[in-house]
Amino acid sequence: MAIFFIIAAVLIRVLSHYDVIPHLANFAPIAAMALFSGVYFNNKKYALVVPLAAMLLADLFIGFYNPWIMASVYGTFLLIGLLGIWLKKHKTVPNVLGASLIGSVMFFLVTNFAVWAIPHSIYPQTLQGLLQSYTMGLPFFRNTLMGDLFYTGSMFGLMELVMWLTNKRLVNKKA
User: Fold this and answer.
1) Which residues touch 20 (CB under 8 Å, ≥6 apart)?
2) In tens digits, what is the pLDDT along the chain, a chain of 175 residues?
3) Which residues, 6 or more positions from 52, have their beta carbon under 8 angstroms from its beta carbon?
4) How far apart are the first and last CA of the chain?
5) Less CB within 10 Å around the terminal CB: N or C of the chain?
6) What is the DSSP letter of 132?
7) Which residues contact 124 (CB under 8 A, 6 or more apart)?
8) Contact predicate 48/81, CB 8 Å
């Protein structure tokens, strides 16, 4: 299952990057995968490594960028994976929705801060520059929210449906 998700995420990211799949900027499955992995993978290492592996493989095709910004992106997905591990024992629809929203906000705050904080940033190293970085990131934040909610709903919904159908089938076989 981990390999399937890595391949699917890499394909979505790479094909979207090259406009093979129409998409909005930042409308991506990686944060949802990080939450999903934390909840459904039994091995915590896999839960944390799967989204990062998908990012790294896609970045091999797409290209690398500023190492500080990359570290903030990868680090945020690691934190979202940890949020998913917490969610495993607290899985309810409101908690999944809340975790997805928290992940989106965390990604926005951390990565836009990194864009502002890097040396030679396009934003001045002032409070006004930081606010400008966040303001300019708002359209991407909207897309991040939509993508995270879409992919989280799709992944969790499909998994729960499969688990429900599997349990129903097992109960019917026993009866």
Assistant:
1) none
2) 667 777 888 888 888 888 888 878 888 899 999 999 999 999 898 889 988 998 998 899 899 999 999 999 999 999 999 999 999 999 999 999 999 999 999 999 999 999 999 988 899 999 999 999 999 999 999 999 999 999 999 999 989 998 899 888 877 777 6
3) 74, 77, 78
4) 30
5) C
6) H
7) 132
8) yes
